UniProtKB/TrEMBL annotation:
Phylogenetic lineage: Eukaryota, Fungi, Dikarya, Ascomycota, Saccharomycotina
Protein name: Glutathione S-transferase
Native organism: Lipomyces starkeyi NRRL Y-11557
Molecular function terms, GO-annotated: glutathione transferase activity
Alphabetical GO biological process terms: glutathione metabolic process
Domain GST C-terminal, chain residue ranges per copy: 106-244
Domain GST N-terminal: residue ranges: 13-103
Amino acid sequence: MAPRQKKQRTEPKYELLYHPEIPGRGEYIRLAFEATGTPYSDVSNQEKNGYKKFQNLITDANPPVFAPPALLVHGEDYHGKPLVISQTSNILLYLGPKLGLVPEGDKIARYHVNGLAITALDFCSEAHDVHHPIDIEQYYEQQKEEAKKKAKSFTKRRIPKFFGYFETVLSENKEGDGKYLVGKSLTYADTTLWQVLEGIEFAFPKTVAKLSKTYSLLFSNFRENIKEHEGLKEYLTSDRRLPFSIGIFRHYPELDA
Ligand SMILES: N[C@@H](CCC(=O)N[C@@H](CS)C(=O)NCC(=O)O)C(=O)O
């Protein structure tokens, strides 16, 4: 009895259920926890047999999870089972007010935060579809020619359209001083967009180098401010932060402008 009680006391309330070894969409959730110093367990990366545990938890959840990330919340059982929430933007919507990552006292602002986070996540999905335009279950090499075509429109039109949109949002949010998308302090729209920009730069460095001068708020004020954020600084330079590799964001030079 005693050891069990001890385990319950030390177990973090939140468990992130995601694939091991890649930042992926799990990173959007990690950044929310890291920015706010919230304890969490990254099951697949930190626990013994974590990968198996992660697979079992997402399958056994009710409703089961179609695709990770998912969030398990201890102490919030739902219909007799541990609460498991799926979909990145949905998890962030749940955590936002609890972690102080939406403006306080403005019930509408949180929907703007969520709308912007979803737009950043759309950008992330489009970047993924560049290297997998035909079939998510086949290798890049099997769809390389189509990928090259998609890359052309993505780098020429879609990247500038997303950059331009977020630049406008930053300049119109006067309270944010070019540093925050909504209000005057950090929200999960900021952390999410920041990670997408990191991924886009990793995948399309030449395109970003060409465009970054045009979107000065985005590429100076905004990016630099997040890097220096009190809660994030240590994490972002630590080896706990997983590097990009061949996940959602991939660097294939032939797809970069
Ligand atoms: N819209 C979902 C997308 C989830 C997703 O595509 N997850 C990837 C990993 S980042 C996956 O494992 N997908 C498997 C699949 O779609 O079959 C979200 O934002 O959570």
